[in-house]
Design a protein that fits this description.
D-Maltodextrin-Binding Protein, domain 2, 303 residues, alpha/beta, 5-stranded mixed sheet, 2 domains
Length: 303
């Protein structure tokens, strides 16, 4: 009986170790000197490719690309050394990774994230790229023009006759619809519809709803002629896009920091929306879109 028990324990341990080895991809086998990652959606894929091309064409280092599915998984990958760099949003780093309460001061959030990441994870948080991707309250362009509204405070005067349509996460989040409605006094004609994220833009265009939530850099905004209402009371926290890099990697490749620094302040929110639209809406090749963007911005190229 004891022999059977020991055999069972041994087999169980072997299976666990085999499973762990299958889920771990050593950086040395990635085929690159540097590994950059995406958190798993279109905008992140674009930013990851921008980071990769910038490194490749200014340092001649080989860059491998990885794609994950969430902020937490991507953070775990860089903290454990599986990847070297990715683009994170400061508000996400502050609230999701560091688990701090939401604040609305962009400089304070950036400084806190930079200090904590260096101390806790030995990661360098570089300066932001020039845009933030936060929640956005969106209406049709024709309505913005008809009522002459640009802000959420102005929109609150008309929502009594409007219908809202929001995704499940926005309805459930503590910093989502409930707090927003209270802050701005938003009262809709009926309880807002809850729907899948992929359906809310269609619902707005078909006039099934009159206000939706999205992300501030969604490609559909410019492509469909929609308007993002200004969060004039600063309800939503800042989510500035900033490169995160392992300090050990920067030490190993001294030219890397200068190469990435050339991206600082070079991507506006409008430009990010356009890039998203080209890839997601027009189905353009992602690498070509990023290559053309770099050329248009005159980014250094030593190739």
């Amino acid at each position: 009986m004891m022999n059977r028990f020991l055999t069972f324990i041994f087999l169980t341990f072997a299976l666990v170790m085999l499973s762990a080895s299958c889920n771990f991809t050593p950086k040395s086998s990635s085929g690159g000197d540097i590994v950059v990652a995406s958190k798993g959606f279109i905008e992140q894929d674009i930013l990851s490719e921008l980071l990769a091309q910038q490194i490749e064409h200014t340092t001649h280092l080989k860059v491998a690309r990885r794609r994950f599915t969430s902020a937490l998984i991507t953070h775990q990958a860089i903290a454990s050394g599986k990847i070297d760099s990715y683009i994170e949003y400061t508000g996400t780093a502050f609230t999701v990774i560091l688990k701090q309460k939401v604040v609305n001061d962009a400089k304070r959030i950036y400084a806190s994230v930079k200090q904590a990441y260096a101390k806790k994870f030995n990661l360098e948080v570089m300066e932001p790229l020039g845009f933030e991707d936060t929640y956005a309250m969106i209406i049709r362009g024709e309505d913005a023009k008809r009522y002459n509204i640009q802000t959420l405070s102005e929109a609150a005067k008309y929502t009594y006759s409007w219908r809202g349509g929001f995704n499940y996460e926005f309805i459930d989040r503590e910093d989502g619809f409930s707090g927003l409605a209270k802050t701005y006094g938003l009262h809709f004609a009926q309880s807002p519809r809850t729907m899948e994220s992929g359906l809310i833009y269609r619902a707005l265009l078909q006039k099934e709803v009159d206000m939706i939530n999205g992300n501030s850099t969604d490609g559909q905004i410019s492509r469909l002629g929609l308007v993002v209402l200004k969060d004039n009371l600063h309800y939503f926290p800042p989510y500035e896009a900033a490169p995160i890099v392992r300090k050990e990697t920067l030490k190993k490749y001294p030219k890397l920091k200068q190469a990435i620094a050339q991206l600082v302040g070079r991507v506006s929110a409008d430009e990010m929306r356009q890039l998203n639209s080209l890839v997601e809406g027009e189905l353009r090749d992602l690498k070509d879109v990023v290559r053309q963007f770099r050329q248009a911005k005159g980014l250094a190229d030593n190739s």
